[in-house]
Amino acid sequence: MLETLYNYFGFAGSLIVAMLAFFFFIFWIAGVAGICAKKRPPVRNTIFISLAVFIPIYPIFWVIADMIKQKRELRRL
Is 0.85 topped by the overall pTM? Predict the structure, then answer.
């Protein structure tokens, strides 16, 4: 797999693709953890967790939205 990636993108391209995949995975894990940490009724919590698992881009958007929300709250202080 790494050889195929290297053949398609070269050294610099495969390094960039590998780093982007790593960052996507880290942000996905952070989003799932943040979604699970919120206190919700069990039915809503199950819906949010299933969205996070079956739609992998949802937790990343959730993390970005949460960061923007926290930045706005910190500016108010």
Answer: no
